[in-house]
Write a structure and sequence with these properties.
By secondary structure, the chain is of the alpha+beta class. The chain contains eight helices and 14 strands. β13 and β14 form a beta hairpin. α1 runs antiparallel to α6 and α6 packs antiparallel against α7.
Length: 296
Amino acid sequence: MINRRRFLAISAAALATPATAQPTKWYGYALGAEVSLTFDAPPDVAEPAIARIRAELERCEALFSLYRPNSDLSRLNRSGQLKAPAPEMLVLLRACDRAYRQTDGRFDPTVQPLWQAAAQNGDLNAARKALGWDRVRISPDHIALDPGQALTLNGIAQGYATDLVTAVLRQAGWENVLVNIGEYYAAGRNWSLGVSDPQHGIVQTRTLKDQAIATSSPGALRLGGGQFHVLNPQAMQPPQWSTVSVQSADATSADALSTALCHADEGEIQTILDRTPKSTTVICVHQNGSVRTFQS
């Protein structure tokens, strides 16, 4: 099985399913994570929507996977450029740019060379010279990287796929849905989700309706030399938190924020949230298991 960059640290269950509902559950695997869907529809009625979702997830893999050598992302990293990028790639890279600016560079997809160096016990200082999202050039017909650069979208692509799948289900007419593509979106009615830390288990329960929640747990996977798998793009320092979960209006931004804030202290988190759309909640778990919650 492919090593997952992100630790799936949220367990979920419906609060109350109406007696008349006929929930369908579907399970799969995409973008390095186990995925699941729950929505109120008989299996035979749900099948067309599930077929569309399979196609959507295959499309995401073909665009954003680091593990497929012929994905658009892999080709970009190999050659340093991608001509005529797909619309979805442009949308996601623009979301990356917003997250980079929103977090003062804490979210930076150019950490891929550093991640590879850490995984292979390579020269981290040399790899760090390739970092810098502000050096990536994006236009509607061309994406270009500086020499030595490579991107990872693992800190945001699962959230983006979650939003895409949610849109497919809603377009098909299904309102009461719980989508898990490595991150969660809960729609229609209230859903109860437990925020969980790898060491301390469930630390808090959140109730979501028409909102997303995304989680990053840096210690869920260690790289060479004991490096945490969620890397700090600004300095070789350990993460501030054992787990960060972000509850927001969409899974794309929640995913990016949960990645970025692993290395941010309390003051920095609040500063970032002060310029974040309202109704964003950040739940941070200390190494000792205590929980700190921040609100925009």
